[in-house]
Specification:
It is built from 19 helices and 2 strands. It has helices at residues 7-25, 29-49, 64-84, 93-107, 112-131, 135-163, 168-182, 187-204, 211-219, 222-247, 252-273, 280-301, 304-333, 344-347, 349-363, 369-383, 387-413, 426-444, 446-457; strands at 53-55, 60-62. 53% of the residues are buried. The protein has a domain at 255-462. It is an all-alpha fold and 462 residues long. The chain is globular, with a radius of gyration of 21 Å. Helix 5 (112-131) runs antiparallel to helix 6 (135-163) and helix 10 (222-247) runs parallel beside helix 12.
């Protein structure tokens, strides 16, 4: 048994306890945050040298698919802590470390019990983070999580009752045997799949399960909103990929319609809702619903090509979203309205170009990460006869272009803040620069990340 497979996660958990201990005696916030960031960086180094393999009878799977998500989680954790230095409210760095570690294990979960255990730990961390900002919202969040967990347990219990297994690979074997012996699945399996999809949809906050998250995202600090919208959502998305592709692909027709509906309605809702929002933080939340809907096209299609496209788009989602969230922190720090874009070109041409590329990627305009991500997803959907979903994706992508084009024009044409002082802290400059380079590099050389995404999906048996 190679426990070295778990080294990055174990180290991160141990480091979080050390941060918690130091926080009792060392009250310098910046030093504690920097020490926490160091832990994430070291964990990334350990991840690089961590071998592939499985632990505890495939309860934990270390592979290239999980590696992609873990890199994103570590980077997102670093960005969250770096941006937290300039947030209007504080939150505990040690909780971000534990939450990041939980997300990493969820991405590698090969067993339902492993997933539930890490989900529980993640809920405790997120509840504590929310309660530091709003006790009322934290209680609502806890109730939402309990309901979601219970729904998942009901679905998992039905699966266990049918198959006698909780391991994803053993569930697949049992269902394959049942398929050839008994034919099409019964109502019990369909009900189990519906319950599991509803539970995970709540965590992804896709339409119509997004309403409970709207107020929460608005009330917590912006870096924390980014962490919820990127790290937490992608952790559950990674498990959704593993569960349905590894275990339930043989019964693809039984769950495709539900997931296709969720993907289509989320794209429509998110793309239309952004036109009605007056607060840009709410706009990013609505945009996240739209983008998760796009990513789901890959799993709805259920092919190697479509999953490869989804993983590529996840990288585009990470870079463009985090870049704009970092700028939102800058705008809040400088007390600028309407995202503070007016007059940026006159103040800093480099910053104007970086923000333009990030908005281009969010909108899906050519030669950015977001453009190729949409092209790959929509092409895979059309190639495998998901015509309705593909058409919805094209229409909503055009709506996103129309919306963000108005924001892009403000960077170059408006002069409302042209003569005002703009302070961009070094940490946020670095985040903006990394996200700008990522969005641009994926747009100019998409084949590099595309080949990496292909290696990641090779772990699934098609």
């Amino acid at each position: 048994m190679k426990l070295s497979i778990l080294t990055p996660e174990i180290f991160l958990l141990a480091w979080s306890f050390l941060v918690r201990f130091l926080n009792l005696f060392h009250k310098n916030k910046v030093s504690i945050v920097n020490f926490s960031i160091l832990g994430l960086v070291i964990s990334g180094g350990l991840l690089y040298f961590s071998p592939s393999g499985t632990l505890f009878n495939q309860a934990f799977i270390s592979d290239k698919f999980g590696l992609i998500f873990k890199i994103i989680f570590l980077a997102s954790g670093i960005f969250t802590l770096s941006a937290s230095k300039f947030a209007d409210r504080n939150f505990s760095p040690s909780l971000i470390l534990i939450a990041t570690g939980s997300c990493m294990v969820i991405a590698s979960a090969g067993e339902l019990l492993t997933f539930l255990a890490c989900w529980g730990l993640l809920v405790v961390c997120l509840y504590s983070l929310v309660s530091q900002n709003s006790s009322g919202l934290s209680f609502q969040f806890l109730i939402l999580q309990l309901v979601s967990v219970l729904i998942f347990i009901l679905g998992a219990a039905l699966i266990f009752g049918m198959t006698g297994a909780s391991s994803l690979s053993e569930i697949k074997v049992s269902l394959v045997i049942g398929f050839f012996q008994g034919g099409p699945p019964g109502v019990i399996l369909v009900l189990a799949l519906v319950l599991i999809l509803v539970s995970l949809s709540i965590q992804l906050s896709v339409f119509p399960f997004h309403t409970s998250w709207v107020k929460l995202y608005q009330e917590i600090p912006t870096p924390l909103t980014a962490f919820f919208n990127i790290s937490v959502k992608l952790a559950f998305l990674a498990f959704l990929f593993r569960l349905f592709i590894r275990s339930f692909l043989i019964y693809h027709p039984q769950w495709i319609k539900i997931l296709a509906f969720l993907a289509g309605i989320s794209m429509l809702y998110g793309a239309i809702k952004i036109f009605k929002e007056t607060d840009f933080k709410k706009t990013l939340n609505s945009l996240a619903i739209f983008q998760i809907g796009l990513i789901l096209i890959g799993i709805v299609t259920g092919t190697e090509q479509s999953l490869q496209a989804s993983i590529f788009f996840i990288w585009a989602y990470f870079f463009s979203s985090w870049g704009i969230y970092a700028w939102l922190v800058v705008a809040e720090k400088n007390k600028r309205d309407e995202l503070g874009l007016a007059g940026i070109f006159r103040q800093s041409k480099i910053l104007a170009v970086a923000l333009t590329i990030l908005f281009f990627s969010l909108a899906g305009l050519p030669f950015t990460a977001g453009f190729w991500g949409r092209v790959y997803l929509l092409e895979s959907g059309w190639s495998f006869r998901r015509f309705t979903l593909t058409i919805v994706g094209v229409i909503t992508s055009l709506l996103a272009i129309i919306y963000f084009w108005n924001w892009i024009k403000k960077i170059f044409t408006s002069s409302a803040y042209a003569n005002s002082h703009l302070e961009v802290p070094l940490n946020l400059k670095i985040i903006l620069f990394i996200c700008f380079l990522g969005s641009l590099f994926l747009g100019v050389y998409p084949q590099v990340f595309n080949s990496w995404a292909l290696q990641a999906v090779k772990v699934f048996p098609f």
